[in-house]
Amino acid sequence: MENEKCAVILAGGKGTRLRPYTLAFPKPLVPVGEYPILEIIIRQLANNGFNKIFIAVNHQADLIMAYFGDGSKFGIKIVYSLEKKPLSTMGPLLLMDNLPDNFLVMNGDVLSDISYNDFLAAHIKSENLFTISAYKRKQQVDYGVLHVENECLMGFEEKPVLDYLVSMGVYAVSKEALNFIPEDTYFGFDDLMRVLLQKRKKVDVKLYEGYWLDIGRPDDYQQAIDKFEQEKDHFLKEFIQL
């Protein structure tokens, strides 16, 4: 379909880092405010003009499928891809039929105000093979850090704060990139990046300076709840289509 705008949401993980919240139901159904995090993402994609979503499911797939159905109540078509065994983040893409030439791939536990439409459009315009949306994050080391040379202390930092550029778990992907993913194999984002780097394929990284949070840890989950409740209308706004 020529005007199809497609996203793949990875929702097959067990959410072990978010226990005990994920003991009763899968991480994509963990509530952020009045909505499960996956519903927020689906509503955002619909507001961004996406008309088809593949959801890769595995752990407690029946609960996710029962909640979201065919997507009609969100104004979007949902197709489920059920893994018979865990395939990590990139492996499930080979199970999906009729993916368009360019599409979005993202984790199902991300709270962000990024324009998914603009991100994918920039990827297509640049004719990229793979584009990573990246975010600057600070991480405090909980220990005193020693700088040592030849067993001699040369410097010391008490609980330094380090700056990292991290993947947001949001990617724009050309269908050509699927050629580098082995079939029926546990194959993650990290595996694909190693292959593309080894083969000297260009991977673009786009820094995003808005809001982003992965709710995979309890502390971040609580932050996401507080932020969403304060700015719900902002996160669920209708985006202008280009």
Summarize it.
This protein has 242 residues and is α/β, with parallel strands linked by helices. It has six helices and 13 strands.
Describe this structure in words.
The chain is α/β, with parallel strands linked by helices. Helix content is 24%, strand content 31%. It has six helices and 13 strands. Strands 5-4-1-6-11-8-12 form a seven-stranded mixed β-sheet. A two-stranded antiparallel sheet has the order 2-3. Strands 7-13 form a two-stranded antiparallel sheet. Strand 9 and strand 10 form a beta hairpin. It starts with 5 loop residues before the first strand and ends in a 7-residue tail after the last helix.
- Rg, Cα atoms, Å: 19 Å
Shape assignment:
globular
What summary fits the major beta sheet?
7 strands, mixed
* SSE class: alpha/beta
Strand content: 25-35%
Strand order of the largest sheet: 5-4-1-6-11-8-12
Unreliable residue stretches? none
Percentage of residues assigned to helices: 10-25%
What do the pLDDT scores average to?
Answer: 88
User: Count of helices?
Assistant: 6
Secondary-structure element order, as H and E?
EEEHEHEEEHEEEEHEEHH
Give the N-terminus to C-terminus distance in angstroms. 19 Å
Number of strands: 13
